[in-house]
Automatic annotation (TrEMBL):
Entry-linked Gene3D superfamilies: 2-enoyl-CoA Hydratase, Chain A, domain 1
MF term (GO), any: catalytic activity
Organism in which the protein naturally occurs: Halorubrum rutilum
Family under the similarity heading: Belongs to the enoyl-CoA hydratase/isomerase family.
Short name of one Pfam family: ECH_1
Record protein name field: Enoyl-CoA hydratase/isomerase family protein
Region (Disordered), start-end ranges: 1-25
Amino acid sequence: MADDATDREADDETGDGSDGGARDYDDVRYAVSEGVATVTIDRPDVYNAFTRTTVLELNDAVRRAERDDGVYATVLTGAGDGFCAGADTTEMPDWDDQYPEEYGAFLWLIQQLVWRLRTAATPSVAAVNGPAIGAGCDFALACDLRTIADGAVMREGFVNVGLVPGDGGGWLLPRLIGESKAREYLLTGRDITPEDAVDVGLAVERAEDALAAATALAEEIRDKPRTAVQHTNRLIDPQQSFDEYCRKAAEYQWDCVVDPEHEEAVAAFNEKRDPDYGRSYDE
């Protein structure tokens, strides 16, 4: 757990290149503990509603975790009682006075974060500890797995305010829970409750402490052979044909076969012991 170990905080400016170099953040906290990176949106007074700065920092933090050889899984969460309540409307410009290209550029920054989470080889777990609304819901959907707190809610509420799910939710949700159920949530703007999230397979589990549950899940993934985990994550793609899948699987499997961690995993299985991959976390 992050509170029990020395973390690599965002204000460590030494950066060895493995994580792209550390930098200071205003709206985000970044810490690595025992091989798990925790990225926290840190604007609790507004339920972690984001500004342009927040999105830029989130992009950097997620990219940093992906590049860090010492990170085996990433947890995304929010500070206080919220996950992310979407855009902070008090910080948004008056779009009526802007050109469409200006709005498109801002939306692109948000889409980049969703894309970055979606395509990362390092597995990500969203700890939905409170309201995940609009683009905040999309951030959770873009993660590979989700846990959800008892009092949390997810909502693709764009239609409620006369907008479309422009950040990725209209693409992600049907692929996660099926087209018909996704249309229900997208066209009505209804809440996805913790019970609903588990029932439709959107969340792995409902927990009193979503962050603790997400961290435990991330640690379980961390303890598997890294190459196998990352290639498996890459291989899961509902858009590809079976032929494409088989071609990738053959390439990825060879990478795994010649990986020393595969050899150790097989030896540990045969000898009925826990594998020892020779890792040392948080150095």
